[in-house]
């Protein structure tokens, strides 16, 4: 039980060392969530990733072209 409490304490400490940032991607209008290290300001994780955003933008552009060609 003490090991579990120690593990939970360590997790809580690491969470306090990080913050969440929310933004909207201008092109795709998708919500972006970033986990940022408070001390270094380094982005620890981003959801969706930059790669996923680029793929979504490419798909949106391709769908737009397809719709224009059918019209």
Automatic annotation (TrEMBL):
It comes from the Bacteria. SUPFAM superfamilies: FlaG-like. Transmembrane segments: none annotated. This is Flagellar biosynthesis protein FlaG.
């Amino acid at each position: 039980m003490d090991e579990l409490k120690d593990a939970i304490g360590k997790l809580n400490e690491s969470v306090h060392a990080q913050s969440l940032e929310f933004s909207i991607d201008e092109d795709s209008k998708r919500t972006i969530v970033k986990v940022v290290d408070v001390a270094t300001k380094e982005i620890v994780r981003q959801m969706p990733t930059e790669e996923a955003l680029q793929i979504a933008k490419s798909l949106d552009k391709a769908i737009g072209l397809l719709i224009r060609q059918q019209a």
